Amino acid sequence: MKTADAYSRLVARLKRIHTIYTVADVLVWDEQVNLPPGGADRRAEQNAVMAELQHREASDPVLGELLGELEADQGPLDGDQRVVLRQARRDYDRAVRLPAEFVREKAELSSRAFHAWAEARPRSDFAAFAPHLERHVELARREAGYLGWGERPYDYLIDQHDPGMSAELIGRLFGRLKEELVPFAHAVVASPVKPDTAFLRGFDVEAQRKLALEVTAALGFDYRRGRLDVSLHPFCSGTGPDIRMTTRFDADNPLDSLFSAIHESGHGMYEQGLPEEHAGTALAMAAGMGAHESQSRLWENQVARSRGFWSHFEPRLREVFRRELGWISSESLYLAVNAVAPTLIRVDSDEVTYNLHILLRFELERRLFSGDLAVQDLPRAWKQASKDLLGLEPESDREGVLQDVHWSGGAFGYFPSYCIGNMLAAQLWYKLVDQHPDLEARFAEGDFTQVLGWLRREVHAQGRRYDVLELTRRATGAELSPEPLMRYLRERYGPLYL
Amino acid sequence: MKTADAYSRLVARLKRIHTIYTVADVLVWDEQVNLPPGGADRRAEQNAVMAELQHREASDPVLGELLGELEADQGPLDGDQRVVLRQARRDYDRAVRLPAEFVREKAELSSRAFHAWAEARPRSDFAAFAPHLERHVELARREAGYLGWGERPYDYLIDQHDPGMSAELIGRLFGRLKEELVPFAHAVVASPVKPDTAFLRGFDVEAQRKLALEVTAALGFDYRRGRLDVSLHPFCSGTGPDIRMTTRFDADNPLDSLFSAIHESGHGMYEQGLPEEHAGTALAMAAGMGAHESQSRLWENQVARSRGFWSHFEPRLREVFRRELGWISSESLYLAVNAVAPTLIRVDSDEVTYNLHILLRFELERRLFSGDLAVQDLPRAWKQASKDLLGLEPESDREGVLQDVHWSGGAFGYFPSYCIGNMLAAQLWYKLVDQHPDLEARFAEGDFTQVLGWLRREVHAQGRRYDVLELTRRATGAELSPEPLMRYLRERYGPLYL
């Protein structure tokens, strides 16, 4: 009785903290989508105050007492309640160990660094961004120290994104992947088959927007509980009943906008599938960023680059873009959808070479935090690694070290999640195909419910009960591995290119 | 030294409270402009938590101690600092004297009453709304009591919107206005000149949007510090560097969207002109709702319905709407812009008969709070007053007492601000014209800088130093009066209709 009461009070507090978080989240979305340039300083101030208010609630000593009380008497708690308690402890410790002043400093730096990055990138002016990045590295080290990870700052950062993972484990997985992926990617790139993408020009933007909404709704994204807008860099924010996704539209790059929208809707469907009645607790949290990315990538790649998907949507595309697609054969279109061509820009890259971009970033981050690499030396190190992995060397930092937004927010240890997600997506996919042999045949009929239904049950409904390694075991019956990803890439791209 | 320090601490607290307010304000804008339907409950929760967080900061006893300390030793404070202190006291008292239970009760009632009103209006079912309205009147009386205005509840309500005003003073001003306006309005309405508005059909909405942005930017709204979006009902929110205006676009009502945008940009330019370095203090607050409305109305009416304005923008309009305006003469267009036709609905009315709607509401509210009129007798009283003032009697309460949203939120004493704003707008206008005899000639050249420059100095830069009466005296050298409004209406509409 006493425990049940304490547990209810814990959940009420977690929900309140979550509500404050969701307000801060609206501000972040609004900043990328709507904010007039003159409002940047004000927004930095707002973000800082919201972070502080959230921190105050999250570090309230009464919450600490509640946690202590429940931890001392866990007998009456069931398994789910213990999951909630464990995550609440993790978050509480994080909140109380980070000084309010530090939290405020980091939020302000992130907002300013974002604007500095947005200005520095088009000018390839790494020097203008470097001081912000140095401050971020310094703050990240301090943060790891506060949380008791002083000796392993990069592991701390990875754990923030993917609980259960470490630099050492990622290094091993990525090492195995690299061994097979580099020769495979080089073979595909060297293939005499060269997709024609020259016809992807002058696609009406308003028609692209309508199609993106139509396709993502058909896959299962619920637009009564979300929306799709435009921003410089596509992203998905929001939770539960209010998911805010973005993409970007370019008349001369229609596949980018479509696949970005599908990718973000994969994230969005994960969030929409988390049980809203448990909002604010671990039962309604994603398992981690790797798990999140597995959802976006599975829809974007395994589903939306499949023959089944295109046999359903190609006629619709030809209806919408009659003029633009008039003389293009089905096979040319499908090859363009699965075009492989190494590029300097991660977000523009195909799914074969994409993972090479992640290996690059993981290695640089790892060296940055081991002390092996200084911020000022990043541009050079980037160029070298790019040449080694991709066979391409950026001429400017705009196409190199300045290309991604992540570091401007101090989000180190985030990039590996993309590749973890790619590995998991392929692993989930083969399990799904095992259980639903008619999967692609159903795609061809416009039916994607088997995918969403299975993911809802095996991934979304699980919340944060398990870390990504355990989630993988439970959903697929095997350890997380790069093998399914390599199998998938060979099966998808081998017949097209080799 | 001690006082200077206390004053700095006061300002820091006021800025923090203001920042929390601005976050809540973004949520309100987002709710009207972006929120997916499924997000409504979540947003209600977010709003409630933000209101609570704001109230906690605004009623912090430490703030009360600071105020007491400064009030006891005002010697070292200059005039501006005393203005800040006085307003801070006013806001603090309001925050601490309203019991939390009362605030919750009023918020709950407002929510229930809004839904009751929204259901009752289309059915003209005043009886279903009346109990909520009675409760609102009762709560308003209690609220006045808490704040020490127990004997004069309606004056309290007016003072909330327009500090310095009272029912007695408004009664005198409106009485003088009524005497001249009623016969003038009836004469205009009876004129054989009937504007043709039938051609205002089928105006491309995207072109309307571009034109609204172009015109409001030309008037002086700074889009680096604000934006214009679409909502069901136009409004202006935001402060300082981030003003969020909305309008609505209807292919068959192009002047409504244009004048709504101009109206809201008048509010927006006021907010953009408040000194941002003093954000959160009285020095960066509008003088009141009447003063605010004077800004929106001056741009919408005195400026944008003038011959000078149209001689500049008509060619541009004809360029954008070549097909739609092809055969319409300049004089027909100008008459359509200044069409007068009495209507039962306030928000649809022209600027001549608009004020009659306000006189009606003021008289009814005054009698409601003097005890002279019971809520149940409102519909009959409304119909009678409508017949007397407008010459039109609503057949149903939908077109009468149920037409406005204001009372469902307990916003009594708000309506008079609209007419105070109209009077002040005309009074400011004639002072401006006095000092800048070439004003309209410059409009014809597309130059509106004299207006904005003068308003910036005489109104915007003043913040809340003076109440609307003193602001009027200082800016125009005369007492607030209905004479300039009547002069303006005669000069604008006499030549067209009489």
Question: What does this molecule look like?
Answer:
The structure is a homodimer of 498-residue chains. With 498 residues, chain A is mainly α. Chain A folds into two domains: 2-151, no CATH class; 167-200 and 273-497, Neurolysin, domain 3 (Orthogonal Bundle). Chain A has helices at 2-33, 40-58, 61-72, 79-97, 100-123, 126-146, 153-161, 167-189, 205-219, 254-273, 289-303, 307-320, 322-325, 330-337, 354-370, 378-390, 415-435, 439-444, 449-458, 468-476, 483-497, and strands spanning 226-230, 236-239, 242-247. In chain A, strands 1-3-2 form a three-stranded mixed beta sheet, sandwiched between helices. In chain A, β2 (236-239) and β3 (242-247) form a beta hairpin. Chain A is globular. The termini of chain A are far apart. The mean pLDDT of chain A is 96. The interface between A and B is medium-sized, with 32 and 32 residues.
Name the CATH class of the largest domain in chain A. Mainly Alpha
The CATH level-2 architecture of the largest domain in chain A is identified as: Orthogonal Bundle
CATH topology of the largest domain in chain A: Neurolysin, domain 3
Instruction: Report how far the terminal alpha carbons of chain A are from each other.
Output: 66 Å
Helix content of chain A: 55-70%
Strand proportion of chain A: under 5%
How much is the radius of gyration of chain A in Å? 23 Å
Which secondary-structure class do the elements of chain A indicate? mainly alpha
Oligomeric nature of the chains: homodimer
Count every beta strand of chain A, where a strand is a DSSP E run of 2 or more residues.
3
- Secondary-structure element order of chain A, N to C: HHHHHHHHHEEEHHHHHHHHHHHH
Tell me the number of helical segments of chain A per DSSP (H or I, 4 or more residues long): 21
Largest interface by residue count? A-B, 32 and 32 residues
The overall average pLDDT of chain A, rounded, is: 96
Taken together, the total number of domains of chain A comes to 2
Arrangement of strands in the largest sheet of chain A: 1-3-2
Apparent shape of chain A = globular
Low-confidence stretches of chain A: none
Task: Give a quick account of the main beta sheet of chain A: strands, pairing sense, barrel closure.
Answer: 3 strands, mixed
